[in-house]
Amino acid sequence: MNFPTTRLRRLRGTQTIRNMVNETKVDLDDLIMPLFAIYGSKVKNPIKSMPGNYQLSVDLLVEECKLLFDKGIQSVLLFGIPEHKDETGMVATDENSIVARAIRAIKKELPEMYVIADICNCEYTTHGHCGTIINGDVDNDSTLETLAMQAVNFANAGVDMVAPSDMMDGRVGIIRESLDENKYSNIPIMAYSAKYASAFYGPFRDAAESAPQFGNRATYQMNPSNVNEAMREIELDIFEGADIVMVKPALSYLDVIRRTKDLFNIPIAAYNVSGEFSMVKAAAEKGWIDEERIVKEVLTSIKRAGSNIIITYHAKQFADYIK
Ligand code: PBG
Q: For the chain, which end, N or C, has fewer CB atoms within 10 Å of the first or last residue's CB respectively?
């Protein structure tokens, strides 16, 4: 049937009918809020390039988690800013490392909060790269060892899930093996599988103090032009034991999310990264866009593309929008 018999506007006539035929709904259960832990007490350092986000000392981080949980956000992704950095990121494998402390404190005060830890070395190395440097580049296999130790350390602290973001080959397998050897076979791995070498991470590197001091991350993160390669990364991570695969960033990579959804039967997470967040904030501050509508549209588009889980700095605000 064609026009005039068929008229698609019939199902757009009122809010009620629009709701009835609505195909995509973002739920608070889908969202994960990233948080940044720093040493000290009562520390709340605003992250200039990410309005509304802070480096929080563990005491305040726990308070923030309580607030988030009350609003319906039941999962957080932790990053840490250590007191001292070293050459290989071993600081993160100490049982009193900043993220290990944060995990313990949250799980003690608010056991229902689902705590995920990012596994990477870039916040912990003096050079800001995601692994151990040998001959001017990140060495894959020696980095795997530090990553596996970091994952086990966070598991010892009580983390609910680990999320390796380093893009070393073989990291999911070795982390799975190490967790299992240490009796953590029940801890899932959410792998940053298709993680692109993206300019959208700029504000995050201010937040986590993790900008590379030389070169860039192009020898380990993916070329933004490639999607077949992303499918290979995802396939390998699934074989190595990933429970959830991630595409990151989200908005310039919605096609990658969709391809993943069409090709694999596994839960997909998408990371609505710092630059994507900050662009919305900056335009909203200037009064150039309607922030609430943009945030809802952004998150809906990521879900519509095929993502089950969305990691987003908008999570807290979104909870207020839909309450
Ligand atoms: C660590 C890591 C990064 C992000 C998440 N984990 C930064 C990077 O790879 O440089 C980016 C998150 C964001 O931009 O919000 N490797």
A: N
Distance 214 CA to ligand 1 centre (A): 17
């595409």: which residue's tokens? 247
Average pLDDT over residues 59-65: 98
Q: Is the peptide bond before 249 cis (omega within 30 degrees of 0)?
A: yes
Local confidence band at 240 (pLDDT 50, 70, 90 cut-offs): very high
pLDDT for 156 beyond 90:
yes
Residue 261 appears among annotated catalytic residues:
no
Neighbouring C-beta atoms of residue 295, cutoff 10 Å: 23
- Quick: pLDDT tens for 188-203: 999 999 999 999 999 9
User: Whose structure tokens read 């070169």?
Assistant: 215
**Residue 101 phi/psi, 5° resolution?**
-65, -45
| Stated pTM of the model | 0.97
Structure tokens at 143: 């980095």
Using a 6 Å CB cutoff, which residues line ligand 1? 118, 120, 122, 130, 165, 201, 204-205, 273-274
Angle between helices 254-263 and 228-240 in degrees, nearest 10: 50
State the average pLDDT over residues 162-169: 97
Question: For residue 27, which phi and psi values (nearest 5 degrees)?
Answer: -110, 150
Q: What is the distance between the alpha carbons of residues 310 and 303, in angstroms, rounded to a whole number? A: 8
How far apart CA 215 and CA 236 sit, in angstroms, is 27
Give the pLDDT confidence score for residue 311 in this predicted structure.
Answer: 99
Q: Cα(198) to centroid of ligand 1, in Å?
A: 9
Residue of 121, 165, 247, 312 with the most ligand 1 atoms within 8 Å of its CB, for mutation: 165
Q: 85 catalytic, yes or no?
A: no
